[in-house]
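*** Fold description ***
***
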Amino acid sequence: MSATTTTMTTTTTTTTTPITMPITTTTTRMPYTTTPTTMPTTTPTMMPPTTPTMMPTTTMMPTTTMLYTTTPTSLPPSTLSSTKATADYPAPVEVCKSRPLDLVFIIDSSRSVRPAEFEKVKVFLSDMVDSLDVGIDATRVGLVNYASTVNIEFHLKTFTNKADLKRAFPRVEPLSTGTMTGLAIKTAMEKAFTEESGARAANKNIPKVAIIVTDGRPQDTVEEVSASARAVGIEIYAVGVDRADMKSLQAMASQPLDDHVFYVETYGVIEKLTSKFRESLCGIDACSLRHDCEHECVNNFNSYYCKCREGYVLNLDKKTCSQAKGSSLCHA
């Protein structure tokens, strides 16, 4: 016990005085033994078990501080990384992979569309492309630019990856006066949606989609040419901005109109339509839900059809396959 007392009284100038301390002094200080660390040399022999043995453990133990730091030190890395991911690197846009498309944008760049507004249109196009699975065997994208004249900026076969496609949008320049929307639709139907321009053959069952963006009233007729485009399988979406004529938008668009006609008050909010188009263009991956195809299932709009492997033909039930006549397939 004396060794323990000597260790705890390193701050005292002499260690012999506790032996000569009067008993009365110790008795008068007994009520204050709850804080022995302030005067450790006054009562070393009176309370050795409680104060000297307990206090060194609490004061000397650095592990109590270490225990409290283990939890905070493990949290900051994940917290910081998640903050950096949202601030510097926005969450990636969900990409539609349920069906490929032959998609042609038809944009109005007449004088009524101010330069700053035209820039917003190009941002909208870029955002739209972000949500699509672009590729030679996926979605192909073309662009028709129009005013009083029509210019095909690039064809469906021009770009085969998303990066090159997005770099092309900033290079598009507005044209002149006039709003020849009917002529633009006709040009898209006859030149942009052809196999020579990169559109897939009809028997491939790849949806052909045109998205028209305009802020004015057409200066030519749109009813007939739009009907012709729809008749050959082109699905038309019409986006009106500001002063756009609603009747003309409805005359151009496919049915049902509620799903194919959109209107925004300014070009400043046109990017809000991106999510709506993502829902419409992606459709439902019907093959992933349920199908009865014996060999292969192919998504088609919000439905599906069955396909047989090479050397087989589809039976009348459109689901099962039989070996083609004359086929020399080897079976194990």
Observations:
- The longest strand covers residues 234-241.
